[in-house]
Amino acid sequence: MPTVAVIGGGVSGLTAARELRHRLGPEARIIVLEAYDRLGGKLKTVDFADGPVDMGAEAFLTRRTGLAELVHGLGLGGDLRVPSGLRSCFYVDGRLVPAPRRTVMGIPARGADVADVVGADAAAAVDAEATAEPLPWTPGDDVNVGGLVRSRYGREIVEKLVSPMLGGVYSSSADALGLRATVPALAETFDDLAGRGEAVRLSDAVSHLLALREDAARAATDRGEAPTPVFNSFARGYRELVRALAEDADADIRLNTQVESVSRWRGRFWLEPVGEVDAVVVATPAPTASVLLGTVAPGAAELLSTVQLASSAVVGMRFDTDNGLPETTGVLLGTDFATRATVHAKAFTFSSRKWPHLAGRGGAFVRASFGTLADSSMVEADDRTLIGYAVEDLRTVSGFTASPVETFVQRWWGGLPCLGENHLDHMDRVRADLDGVSGIALAGAVMRGVGVPACADSGRDAARKIVADLSGS
Ligand SMILES: Cc1cc2nc3c(=O)[nH]c(=O)nc-3n(C[C@H](O)[C@H](O)[C@H](O)COP(=O)(O)OP(=O)(O)OC[C@H]3O[C@@H](n4cnc5c(N)ncnc54)[C@H](O)[C@@H]3O)c2cc1C
Q: In this protein, which residues make up the domain named Amine oxidase (predicted)?
C-alpha cells in the first residue's frame, strides 16, 4: 500500500488526509506533517474563562454545500450553530449605519440603497452610471475590484463600502483583489452581457444579481421554506472540526515537523527531513508551497511565488456586561482618511450579538481586527498597544465603555492570500502544471478561495488527484 504525505495540518491538509483514508482504505500509510505544535492552521479555538471562542476563522458560508456535508459526515451536525439574524453596521462620520441590504459585496445598483453610508453626492454618482458609456468587456476579462468600482461609481463607494466589506474577508483593499476571484458572479454577469452583445454596465449587472437573489428568496418563501442562514459556526469552536477530521483521517500525525524540501527519488519522492514517500499533498500557504514545489513542478512554483499574503491580528475581548453594546453583529470601518485618522481597527465582530450560543454565556464577547495587505504595522504592535487600541476604538465607534475582563491577542502572519487580478487563471495554469506531475497535488486557500468550505474542497480535489495518479488512471 502507498505512503502519502500531507504537508500542512490546516483544514485543507486534514480534509485531504481524510479523503485519502476513505479512498485508499485502512492499509494505506498517510502521514500529516505539521510545522507547528498543533493542528488547525488558521482554525484556532481559545479557551476563555466562560468557554471556547475562535480566534481565526469563526464561521463558514453555507452556500457551498461541501463543508456542511463533511461536517454531517463527521457526526458534527448537532454542533452547528446559526447566527442571530441581526445586521452588521458601517461606521460613517462618527455614527453607526446599518449595512445596506441591496449590494453585492458592498457594490450597489442604485444610489438610494447606499445613500445612508456614502452620502447624497456619492449616491448620485451611482445612479449616473446607468447612462454612462458601457464598460469595455470581453468574456474572460478580469479587473481589480477597486479600480472597476471607482471608475464607474467614484472613490467613496470603494472607500466606504467595498473595501471595508472585502477587507473584512480578505484583509486586502478592493484595489488589490481580482473581480473574478472575489466577486465571481459579477464577472460572470459581465461575460454574459458581453457574450450576448449587450452593453455592460456595473449597475445593470448588480441589479441582475440582486433580482436573482430576491427571486430565489421569494421562491423559497412560496415553498414554505424557512430562510437558510448564510453562515454556520460550531458550538465549541472550529477545534471540533479539526479534532474530528484528524480522528477520521486516522493518519500518522507529526507535529513540530517542518518540511524543508520535496524532490524526486528513485521514482518516488524524498521529503526532507521525513524520507521517502509515494505521493505528496502540499497544503501550506502559497509562498511555502512555491518553495516545496520548486524542483518537482517549477512552473507551478513560479506562479505561486507571485501570490502575496496579508497579515492581520485579532484581539478577543470578554466583558462581564453587554449593557450598551449596540444591537448589531459588528462594525466595518471605512478605509477613507477620515475614518483611518480616528480608529486603528479595521473591523469589530460583536460575537455575542452575532451568535446566540455565545450570548447565552452572559456578558459580551467582541473581536477587534487589525492589519491589511498594505499595512501590517498594527500586526507588529505589541499586545498592550493592540489591546489598548481595541478598547479605545470600540468606545469610539460604539460608545460601549466597559473594560474587558479577559483578552487574547492572536497574530496571523501571512494569514490570507491576496487573490488579485487573473488569480483564477494563474491557478488553472498551476493545476495544469501539476496534472503533468504524477503523485503531487496542491491544496489550500490559494486554489479555490480563502473560505473554509473552499479550502476543504481543495483538500478533497487534491486527494482525488493523488488516488487517480496512484492507480495510474
Ligand atoms: C483572522 C482570520 C479569520 C478568518 N475567518 C474566516 C471565517 O470566518 N470563515 C471562513 O470560511 N474563513 C475564514 N478565514 C480563512 C480560513 O480560515 C483560511 O483560509 C483556512 O483556514 C486556510 O486553511 P489551510 O489549511 O489552507 O491553510 P492553513 O490554515 O494556513 O494551514 C496550513 C498549515 O501548514 C503548516 N505549514 C506551513 N509550512 C509548512 C511546512 N514547511 N511543513 C509543514 N507544515 C507547514 C502551517 O503551520 C499550517 O498549520 C479566516 C482567516 C483568518 C486569518
A: 11-466
